[in-house]
Every structure is written in C-alpha cells, then in structure tokens.
Amino acid sequence: MEEQPIICSSCLGENSHVRMKRHPNGEECRFCTRPFTALRWSGDTRVGKMKKTVICESCARARNCCQCCSVDIDYQIPLDLRDAALKLAGIANPYSVENTSKNREVKAIIGDKIEKRLKNEETETAEEKKEKMRDILTKLAQKLGSGAVANTSMPKERTSGGSTTKELSKTIAALPFGGSLALPKNNEDRSFFVFGFSADMPQYKLSEFFETHGKIESVRIVHKAKCGYVVFDSRSDADKCASAISSNGLNSNLATAGLILVNSQPVRVSWGNSQPLGRNNDEQAKIAQVVTKVMKQLAERDALQKGKRTKKLNGSHSTKRQKLESQERTDKETKEVKQSYKALSRDLEL
Ligand SMILES: [Zn+2]
Ligand SMILES: [Zn+2]
To answer: Basic and acidic residues compositional bias: what residue ranges (predicted)?
Structure first.
C-alpha cells in the first residue's frame, strides 16, 4: 500500500511543502506492534521539532486517525473520546477497533486481519468514507442535543430527532404527572412513576430508598428525562411504600404526587405504570423540561395547601404547644421547599 500517509494538518505543521524521510521498518506500530515504514519530518519551522509516524497505515486507516497523534483525521477528536461518545449515543461506528489485548501476538494478528479487510474494502473511496463519518458525527451532535452543529444548522425547536411534535406530546400526555399515592383501583398495580431528580442523581440512591420498603422488581430511570419507574415485586410492598411516603410529612397535598428527598434532591412519586420516556435525547430533554415545570407547580400547590392548613390550625382552639409545633413544621417545610428550588434552578442552568 504505497499511498498518501494519513497525517492530520496540525501534525504536518504550517509549511506548505513537507519533506518526509522514509525509514523502512523504522517503528513498531503502537496499536498492532508490527514494524512499519515510519515517516519523519519537521513539523515546525524551528529546527529540532521532528515528527514521526507511530501508527501503521492500516491501523490508522481502520480507525480513521492520524498516524502521528492518533486524533480523528476529519474531526480532530481524540480517538477514545470519539469512540466513547459514539458508543454512548448508540451510533454505529465503523472506525471503532476492538484491540484491547495486551498480548503482542494477538495485537499483531488483529493488525493482519485489519489489513486484509482494508484491502477488500479498497472500493470504498475516501469521499464515501467521509460521507459516512459526517453522517455519524452529525447524528452525534443532534443526539447530544445542545451540540454546536445542531445549534448552527437549524433552530432548536425543529430538531426533535425525526419525531413529530404531535408524537412527543402524546408521549408526555401519557406520563402520570397528575397521579398521587391514593390507593389505585387496580389491585395488580405495583409500579411507581418517579420524577424530578436531576441528571446526576445516582440510580443506586433511588434504588436504596425504595428498597427500604420492600423487594424491588425493577428500576428504570431515564436521567435525561428526569423520570423513570420503580416496580415492586409485590403489591403489598408497593402499598407499604406508598403509605410511608404519604405520611412522611413532606407533601401536604395528598391529591398530588408524594414527595421524598433522595440525595438531598426533591423527588416526586405517584402510582404509574411504565410508559415510553422518549426515543432519543432530544425527546428526553423535552420531557425533562415538563418535569421541571410540574415540579414547580406541585411545590406551589403544596405551599398553598400548607397555608390553608396552618390558618385552620391557628384558628381553632389549638393549644400554644400545637401552634408552636405547627409553626416549627411549616418552617421546616419551607426550608425544604426552598432547598428543592435551589436544586432545581442549579440544574436548569446546565
Ligand atoms: Zn498497526
Ligand atoms: Zn496528528
């Protein structure tokens, strides 16, 4: 394969003419350990700033990376970051190469395989490859939601990842935001809709909380949507959990979802069976916006209810002690509500 070396522009330097020196079998490839014809050149006008290739051509081509610094050749993104991001976003990545073996022989065998594969793929032109990559990274930017590409290419409202606004509203409408912890009619129900936590809420903290009330069948949390479902193994444990939350004193309006504090974050809980929580990051981000709004509304309704109750208590023949207790409680609750707002507003800034 006597072709153009794959070297990124920053490694090539600013000179328009770069003189390269070939060193047959001059280096061992960092990825496959096989010796290859290394290239050396002066990447800078200053003397002594010599650059060299450290990755063989087939390894670099298979990964679409620079033979010298190993960044993605088209996007100048470090390989690990690129592959991790694509994997996270669930996008097929033709340039990901699993080569985690520490064994030199195995590495070399994988290198041979890659080279063979590339020879068979010779028909794919560089332009086709670039097109594929562009497609992938554009998708990635869209999936990441607030990505720079998505922002510049079109207004945010319209990039709902291929789904119509109608479908999304249907999804949101199906979510039991208006639910409560009152006994459900269906005796089979043992699933809770849990919402309002921020994206950094550790799932195990939520599991831990619910496990104190009984055996959990499943916890399905979509962090990006700030909501999810917790399903108990049995209805009786679910009932126990519901009544424990109802009577924890945090939520004064029992007609709305219960309130718990997990990891010092306010989280709402109501009965609710599993519904879709958005098909992509964009939909999930929109659901999260609704969650944030509902959290505020619920806190406001709570405060209203609390005001009514305090008035009633103070108006009746309550003893001094009762008054004091109720006052204390209100103070405590206001503090908690304030705390929850703080958590929410910090989260919103992201
Ligand atoms: Zn190699
Ligand atoms: Zn480079």
So the answer is: 322-350
